[in-house]
Amino acid sequence: MQQLVVPVVVGTLASFGAASGSLPRGVSPDFAKFYESKDSFACITQPSIKLDVKQVNDNSCDCPDGSDEPGTSACAHLDPLSPPQPLPGSPTGSTNTTNALPGFWCVNKGHIGGYVPFAYVNDGACDYELCCDGSEEYSGVGGVKCPNKCAEIGKEYRRIEEERRKSLEQAGAARAELIRQAKQAKRNAETTIVNLKGEIAHLELKRIELQKKYDETERVERRKVVKAGAGGGKLAELLEQSKMRVEELRDTLELVVEQRNELRTKVADLEGILKRFKEEYNPNFNDEGVKQAVKSWEDYAARIANEHSEIISDAEVRDVLIEDGEMNGINWKDFEPSDDDVADTDIIYKLEAYAPRFILDLFYKQMAALRQWLVSNGILADSGTTTTESPAVKAARDALSAVDREITSKTSALKNEEDDLEKDYGPDDVFRALKGKCVSTDAGEYTYELCWFQKTMQKSKKGHGNTNMGDFARIGREMSDEEERLDGKGLGTGERMVLRYENGQSCWNGPRRRTDVWLACAEKEELWRVSESEKCVYKMEVGTPAACEPQGPAAAPSAKKGKDEL
Ligand code: MAN
Prior knowledge:
It comes from Pseudallescheria apiosperma (Scedosporium apiospermum). The protein is of the alpha+beta class and about 575 residues long. Among the domains are: about 20-145, no CATH class; about 235-335; about 435-545, Mannose-6-phosphate receptor binding domain (Cation-dependent Mannose-6-phosphate Receptor, Chain A). Helices cover about 40% and strands about 15% of the residues. It has helices at about 150-230, 235-280, 290-305, 315-320, 345-350, 355-375, 390-420, 555-565, and strands at about 40, 50, 105, 115, 440-445, 445-450, 455-460, 465-480, 495-500, 515-520, 525-535, 535-545. The strands form three sheets. An eight-stranded mixed β-sheet has the order 5-6-7-8-9-10-12-11, with no helix packed on it. Strands 1-2 form a two-stranded antiparallel ribbon. A hairpin with a 3-residue loop joins strand 6 (about 445-450) and strand 7 (about 455-460). The longest helix has about 80 residues, at about 150-230. It binds alpha-D-mannopyranose. Alpha-D-mannopyranose binds next to loops.
């Protein structure tokens, strides 16, 4: 992997190659105007304090803002780039003023000019990483001579910069390719959604048809069962026997009524005889047998008088005895099947028009039980199967269930696709192209794996199984302040995207595992390193073109930021 991070020289491109001209030592072009007067020097932040020009760089800190010493370390205690140094003899050694100058200006001709902290000026050490021309050290007597190395340092810098630029270009091209793939993946998902919607709509229509067919088949089958009974089965036999039995009962009733009428006449005759006997007997004969008979009659007459037994009237008897027909009694023809008949059970199917589904389900369950009971009691013909459902009904129901299952599965696939389309896949949707792809690295006894937008895994190399280190939850951002790495495979400094993976396998006696996946711009996907900062909390550092800043003119402002990032 090419190194994408190079040490950045402190400085500004605007100052590149600026010559100090007649300015005092250490003054940058940005502050030149304060040092142009030949007569006097006014402290930059407090111009009312005026000094002789000879006092500039005389190694004595005269201005409270240190601006009179741009080329020495006399005011280094005010240096904003280094901790304040106490002045000899000052009571606290601290001051609330800061240097008006950002540092000693090192021209670095042939490379890039930059500021050096005043504390480094004339300290006897050549600070080439900041001042490649060595001008921060006095080269005169008593000073250290630092030869100018700007030519070679500048050349190396430009070589690295060129490498960096190429690397950036390649990473940018890789990112553009990812974006192209992400767009394609999105288009595919949109097409899938349209197709699924069409298929579901088609299946819904099919379902309506199949439901109709099922209802109709079931209705016809039930009717067949009833008709089969009426035409020759047990129900017809029951009907026939009922009719015969009713006729027999009617004949018997006729006889009984006749006999009753005869007996009524006989009872009336006997009661008349006994009544007369009681009225006409002679009590003076003192005949015990006669007296007993009269007493029994009196008791009988008293009991009869108190009895209110229901007497069936002759009219009622006549009604019952009238022959059955269309206008009277039972019209048996009503019960005989004909081709235009609606089956008895049709009344049941009409329930479907208004009854709620759960009632129907309950009802059909009860009906099935009833039908079973009728079959086992010999009233309905057995269909020959263990269930009461005919093969035709079963086939219709199976077809309906199959289409139901298909609708459920396609609806769930549609929901997944729609949810996925709404998901945050980062800037320019770029991570959509990586979804489902994995990168891994070996570390110690494990192989660690990152599956983009899915999960992170810790796989034992000793065959102890895999551990889920978290499922993808969301994209976040955090500041990184890592040292640049020589191989470039590091996060560096600046804001970085962090993918959060949470709710992994539970840690023994601890929380569920989670992983923060820190991303840095790189030419290709690579899992650089994994660390476990605290138990079961992992950090993955990953390079990917997807994390690069967008390049090109449209992205100019952030491309400048990219200099820091890369
Ligand atoms: C395993 C690994 C480690 C983890 C411990 C916690 O050994 O998953 O990363 O720290 O379990 O018990």
